[in-house]
Amino acid sequence: MKPTSTQARLLDAAESLFSERGFKGISIREITEKAEANLAAVNYHFGSKAGLMKALIERQIGPLNQLRIAELDAAEAAAGDQPLAIDNLLRIFFTAPIRHFHKPGQKLPNLLARLHQDPSPEVVEVVVSVFQPIADRFLTALHRSAPHLSEAQLITRAMFMKGAMVHAMSDGLVLASAMTEGRVSMDDPEELIEELVQFCTEGFRLHTPNSGPQAE
Amino acid sequence: MKPTSTQARLLDAAESLFSERGFKGISIREITEKAEANLAAVNYHFGSKAGLMKALIERQIGPLNQLRIAELDAAEAAAGDQPLAIDNLLRIFFTAPIRHFHKPGQKLPNLLARLHQDPSPEVVEVVVSVFQPIADRFLTALHRSAPHLSEAQLITRAMFMKGAMVHAMSDGLVLASAMTEGRVSMDDPEELIEELVQFCTEGFRLHTPNSGPQAE
DNA sequence: GTCTATACAGTGATAGAC
DNA sequence: GTCTATCACTGTATAGAC
């Protein structure tokens, strides 16, 4: 099985292996063996193991983020001067990645979830470069859609939202699957999207005092 | 600096090093060097690198979970037959760990967040053994407090909740800090607890149809 | 029991031949 | 573009000192 280029075979092999066992859990010897390439091929084509990971992440996430930004642009154009309703905004944010990744056997979200928490500078650099633009774009829109929140509240709740999404998508959900012993929590992506949209929308709508103990 | 036992020095050194750079990111040699112990000390006292991590996690999390379960027991006893209000239940769940960990320089939550996503069997075993009991306990209570939700909805939203909490606690929040460039989202733990309680309470209260597209 | 030195197979990376 | 040889490093195991 060597119908494709060495680069493509390396990317495919690395994607499935990293997704299964994590970045640090896979050796480039395993990758090159599965891809039927030489040990040095990774460094030749991608510069390093981290470079290979960055390439495969961008291959998957790049188009997805382009799609999300295009949909947000369209929705904002249609709304004119009006800010988007929070649930519409969140639906745009969640739909593309969940539809794309929420399939049986798709393990890349697990890898992404782990990368979001990885402190090594090489990994941080990749994650920031891939997700920074889309995060900025949605935070700005969210700020317009939820003007009742202080900046600290907005960022905090955006963290809650990101945590909920990342967690829900990484099917491994190691604890969850161990906890629930195989009872899948939700297998229809459309249902998961809607649950997540509703859950977070309510959270963003809430208007709470933003500091200190004070009576209502 | 060798006032304490070798075991204690190893635990302290490993905790700070793992928290900074992750489980796989730190070598036994670095740990034993910082602890002024011999390379083989880790394997002698803890059996393996994973055994050392398990010991330090249990040292920190064990008492915290005991406290949470005691508080839940007390609240349920006080409520008699009545299920607890969702916000009270969540407040008990969040308060102890956030008060304990939400301090400047405290990086253990970052490690815990990463461990929750780590696929290696050795790590999964530790995480499950430490968090399974408390997860079961709270899921049961949550089921009583939110009887309007199907089991799939309950588990799904519990995942959202866990994701939000874990994400909010791991201050690194690599993306967040990069995204917001140092603007701390929320430094008062009590404020963070209350934001998280309110955010998730609204999410659990929601009553949505639990399958298929159907008009309201 | 506790600790030490050392050996072993595995890792990512690289220089240089082809 | 590919390959081999080699480097410094990793976690682990064990023999033996105290």
Topology:
2 copies of one chain form a homodimer.
Chain A: H1 6-21, H2 28-34, H3 41-46, H4 49-79, H5 86-101, H6 108-115, H7 121-145, H8 151-169, H9 174-180, H10 189-205
Chain A binds a DNA duplex (18 and 18 nucleotides) through α3.
Would you give an account of this structure?
Two copies of one chain form a homodimer. With 216 residues, chain A is mainly α. The first copy, chain A, folds into two domains: 1-47, Homeodomain-like (Arc Repressor Mutant, subunit A), CATH 1.10.10; 61-205, Orthogonal Bundle (Tetracycline Repressor, domain 2), CATH 1.10.357.10. Helices cover 70% and strands 0% of the residues of chain A. The first copy, chain A, contains ten helices and no strands. In chain A, helix 4 (49-79) packs parallel to helix 7. The first copy, chain A, is elongated, with a radius of gyration of 20 Å. The termini of chain A are far apart. Residues 212-216 of chain A have low confidence and may be disordered. Chains A and B meet through helix 6, helix 7, helix 8, helix 9 and helix 10 of A and helix 6, helix 7, helix 8, helix 9 and helix 10 of B. The first copy, chain A, binds a DNA duplex (18 and 18 nucleotides) through residues 6, 27-29, 37-45, 48-49.
For this structure, the quaternary state is: homodimer
Tell me the name of the CATH homologous superfamily of the largest domain in chain A.
Tetracycline Repressor, domain 2
The rough form of chain A would be described as: elongated
By DSSP (H or I, 4+ residues per run), the number of helices of chain A equals: 10
Cα distance, first to last residue of chain A? 68 Å
Secondary-structure element series of chain A: HHHHHHHHHH
> What portion of the residues of chain A fall into strands of 2 or more residues?
under 5%
The gyration radius over C-alpha positions of chain A equals: 20 Å
The domain count of chain A comes to 2
Helix content of chain A: over 70%
Report the count of strand segments of chain A. 0
Mean residue pLDDT of chain A: 87
What profile does the largest beta sheet of chain A have?
A: none
Helix/strand structural class of chain A: mainly alpha
The CATH topology of the largest domain in chain A is given as Tetracycline Repressor, domain 2
CATH class of the largest domain in chain A: Mainly Alpha
Protein chain pair with the most extensive contact, residues per chain = A-B, 67 and 67 residues
- List unreliable stretches of 5+ residues of chain A: 212-216
- CATH architecture of the largest domain in chain A, by name, is Orthogonal Bundle
